[in-house]
Amino acid sequence: MANKCAQCQAYYACYLCHNALTTHPFAPVAMADLGVLCGACGFEMTGTVYATCTACPNCQHPFNPKCHLHHEIYFC
């Protein structure tokens, strides 16, 4: 899975990867906006959809359960 930065609108594996590769800090996206990308099939989903799933709703590839611990970093 990848998360979108609201400022640059690009997907990164995590906020640390984003911050290492760009000149600005990671900015969270609104829960209602497309901001999560399944790494297995490329399906884009909103934070609202992602928060209700344990696997991609398109291909059923499981999400890392620890990612939900970082909700406040990726969504606003």
Structure description:
With 76 residues, the chain is an alpha+beta fold. Helices cover 21% and strands 16% of the residues. It has a four-stranded antiparallel beta sheet with strand order 2-1-3-4. The longest helix has 7 residues, at 15-21. The radius of gyration is 11 Å and the shape is globular. The model has no long low-confidence stretch (mean pLDDT 94).
Q: Nearest-angstrom radius of gyration?
A: 11 Å
Distance between the termini: 18 Å
- The averaged pLDDT comes out at 94
Percentage of residues in DSSP E strands: 15-25%
- The percent of residues in helical segments reads 10-25%
Q: Helix count, per DSSP?
A: 3
The stretches of 5 or more residues where confidence is low (pLDDT under 50) are none
Which structural class fits the helix and strand makeup? alpha+beta
Shape: globular
Can you write the helix and strand succession as a string? EEHEEHH
- How would you characterize the largest beta sheet? 4 strands, antiparallel
Which strands sit side by side, in order, in the main sheet?
2-1-3-4
Number of strands: 4
